[in-house]
Prior knowledge:
Layout: H1 3-29, H2 31-37, H3 42-50, H4 69-82, H5 84-94, H6 96-100, H7 105-112, E1 120-133, E2 136-146, E3 154-163, E4 166-176, E5 181-183, E6 197-207, E7 211-213, H8 214-218, H9 237-265, H10 291-323, H11 330-356, H12 368-380, H13 387-400, H14 406-412
Parallel strand pairs: 1-3
Antiparallel strand pairs: 1-2, 2-6, 3-4, 4-7, 5-6
Helix pairs in contact: 1-4, 4-5, 4-9, 5-9, 9-10, 9-11, 9-12, 10-11, 11-12, 11-13
Amino acid sequence: MNGDALSDNNIAGQAVLAAIAELLPVLRDRVRDAEQARRIPAESMTALQQIGFFKLLQPHRYGGYEAHPVTFYTAVQQLASACGSTGWVASVLGVPPWNVALFDVAVQDEVWGTDADTRICSSYALNGTATPVDGGYRLSGRWGFASGCDHATWALLGGRVVDNGEVVDSCTFLVPLADYTVKDVWDAVGLCGSGSNDLIVENVFVPAHRALSSVAVNKCQTPGHAVNDSPLYRIPFGSIHTSAITAPIIGMARGAYQAHLDHQRHRVRAALPGEATKDSGFTGDPFQNDPFALVRIAEAASDIDAAWLQLTHNIGEVYAMAEAGLPIAPIDRLRVRRDQVRGTERAITAVDRMFENSGGRALAPDSTIQRFWRDAHAGRAHAANDPERMYRMFGAAELSAPQRPVAAQGQNS
């Protein structure tokens, strides 16, 4: 892609961010509607489509913006700061265009050839079984947590390829709406409006070109690279997708932080009988005068900022590697994942700290703080947020790698 195209895409991305800023008050007003309906209102999805959000990671050749991934994550974070469910669904529906760009061009034509606004949901867990047949596969399975599936007409589904009783590959299969059934099962305490329902496929034929091998994806050598040569599509799947899980959680933490500040500005600590002494803390003073409350605010703000800075820094680095045509080494991929799961942990810690510091009124059903608390913890339950596993993998890689000069270690930390 030439420099002019990159510049145009950056301008388009900034326009999306500006439009989102204007949309946030409307999304805040629709939070309860989303929770009660257990899915994002159609009006919100239409608004996101109209401002070009779903084009951020879509290939330029189909009218997309091929924006820098940090632009995408920034948009997601902003959306989630207003409505956790909307930010979550926007993120997991916004990533599939990037994934479809890795498929054979025939697949991309099928999806976007007649409708550039086609939306794709996903459930990447290897819950399907695919049997090779002439010209493709026979796929069956049931996939959970397909957030936003009610607003999509295609689905990306993970599955194992089994031949003669042996697993010979794993793939992501692209399946049209006519070939899967949406089972309405979503009834959760957090991300209530995400519509994360189940998808069921029963012995459906999937043409070979609609199957993308995990081996090719891991090597960043896929059929789609023949037509989509932007550095955006040479970033590893494990970096792009998992960061799209943490970005909305950080956004929820930012929303909770702002709600906490608004709450604390007008809150007065109760003075209990017999305990209203200068040193007891039960003085009836405004919380603005409570040193412990102020410390917790600072700690939460620092955790949120650290989570965001590491996520964006790491993605910026791997993007720069891809832009320079450099291979993205396993340790670089692990670093992205290390800080991604750490970012989720930091965001959750911040939300918990603010929630426990907000008093009993934060428990009210219409409390913004408790809603963000529920949503953030629901996002934390995603399989991509498994800290111990990633820390172990990163630590093992560090110890087994050749010793690096001190200066180089400092640059990569």
